[in-house]
């Protein structure tokens, strides 16, 4: 079942259960996916393209959450946290820090990186492997630790 089909089913269920917030988030996700399909000129998105859209939505919410916390906007923080929880339901299982460390170690060996100057090369090789499964900030932190 594609992500769009799953969203349609969940949207119908949210309508039946009168879950306004969940319905709003699902509609927003569907809209983002459809906009991406139009932008790319494809009627159907690949799984990788769907993952890219979901990752972008998660990142936007995490950035907003950080800004609202800095501004002491508790009302908006709660709203964004619940939206984030709904969006993360559709994301693949996230890798633990230990799993990321294993992937980083393998990739550092593959690209023969030895200094922080080669961090870009390592990050470029790692990110496609962990796309949607690990936060970029966590990966960056682990790579810095390995290269220092």
From TrEMBL:
Entries under SUPFAM superfamilies matching the protein: GatB/YqeY motif
Return any one Pfam family short name.
Answer: YqeY
Q: Which InterPro entries match?
A: Asn/Gln_tRNA_amidoTrase-B-like (IPR003789), GatB_Yqey_C_2 (IPR023168), YqeY/Aim41 (IPR019004), YqeY/Aim41_N (IPR042184)
Query: Which PANTHER family does the UniProt entry name for this protein?
Result: ALTERED INHERITANCE OF MITOCHONDRIA PROTEIN 41, MITOCHONDRIAL
Q: Could you identify this protein by its name?
A: GatB/YqeY domain-containing protein
State the species of origin.
Bacillus spongiae
């Amino acid at each position: 079942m594609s992500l769009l089909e799953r969203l349609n089913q969940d949207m119908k269920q949210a309508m039946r259960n009168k879950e306004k917030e969940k319905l709003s988030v699902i509609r927003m996700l569907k809209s983002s996916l459809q906009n991406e399909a139009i932008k790319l000129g494809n009627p159907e998105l690949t799984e990788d393209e769907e993952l890219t859209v979901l990752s972008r939505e998660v990142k936007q919410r995490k950035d907003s959450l950080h800004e609202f916390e800095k501004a002491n906007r508790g009302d908006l923080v709660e709203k964004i946290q619940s939206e984030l929880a709904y969006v993360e339901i559709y994301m693949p299982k996230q890798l633990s820090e230990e799993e990321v460390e294993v992937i980083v170690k393998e990739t550092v060996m593959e690209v023969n990186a030895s200094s922080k100057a080669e961090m870009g090369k390592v990050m470029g090789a790692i990110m496609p492997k962990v796309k949607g499964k690990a936060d970029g900030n966590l990966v960056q932190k682990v790579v810095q630790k390995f290269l220092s």
